[in-house]
Prior knowledge:
The protein is α/β, with parallel strands linked by helices. It has ten helices and nine strands.
Amino acid sequence: xxxxxxxxxxxxxxxxxxxxxxxxxxxxxxxxxxxxxxxxxxxxxxxxxxxxxxxxxxxxxxxxxxxxxxxxxxxxxxxxxxxxxxxxxxxxxxxxxxxxxxxxxxxxxxxxxxxxxxxxxxxxxxxxxxxxxxxxxxxxxxxxxxxxxxxxxxxxxxxxxxxxxxxxxxxxxxxxxxxxxxxxxxxxxxxxxxxxxxxxxxxxxxxxxxxxxxxxxxxxxxxxxxxxxxxxxxxxxxxxxxxxxxxxxxxxxxxxxxxxxxxxxxxxxxxxxxxxx
Length: 277
Ligand SMILES: Nc1ncnc2c1ncn2[C@@H]1O[C@H](COP(=O)(O)OP(=O)(O)OP(=O)(O)O)[C@@H](O)[C@H]1O
Ligand SMILES: [Mg+2]
């Protein structure tokens, strides 16, 4: 059976430089432990995908990395800085270096598409509004939308369009790093393929580092340099897929070596010399 997306598995980067360092992270809600001494590095320029069962703490991990949730203990450094120790102005400057596309869109329903995309720029108060509008339109075009979508409300958009507006907003401040939480969930195979191609193009053009949570094996295989597996409240391993599948763990068996996984992984039988970074 033909794979949905052109698959060329990527190797890890030759000269990895960590830009996110999560160390000994513990996160508890009351008695419930989500993360228990979890470690993770993300390297500049890579696409790192995070997989794990539903409720394993993928979104919670992203939310702690971007400072929307505080860890119970442990440390997180982004671009060499600890967001928890920064004064407000420095924290805002650091935050402007990344963008996040949320799992459920998180667009403001009362704002038009263009105003949603313009919002992070308006909050910065660094540009006149006509320039902000022009820049927001460019972002919309960058993600495959157009001026005719600009005045629509989120409720008038298809699922795929909502994902694209979320991405345009994440790119609003021209970040070096983007977080994508389930970017293709709920999209039909074609919209999902288009979205994967878009992420790949933006990654190459903008030199982005991408941290992506996804359940979609085809998306994962098409885009990732490395995959981090969240299981047993930790990152079990963060490695290229062809190394992960050798690990003897029930989640890995179920996820990568079930029927869908095997089918997607068939495409990974590519000689090492043909794997591109
Ligand atoms: N604010 C909160 N208060 C209490 N429990 C929470 C809170 N946020 C998350 N949790 C719990 O933490 C666990 C991890 O949630 P999280 O949303 O990170 O999972 P996930 O891996 O992203 O799942 P999914 O694949 O379904 O999106 C879940 O059991 C969830 O109920
Ligand atoms: Mg989630």
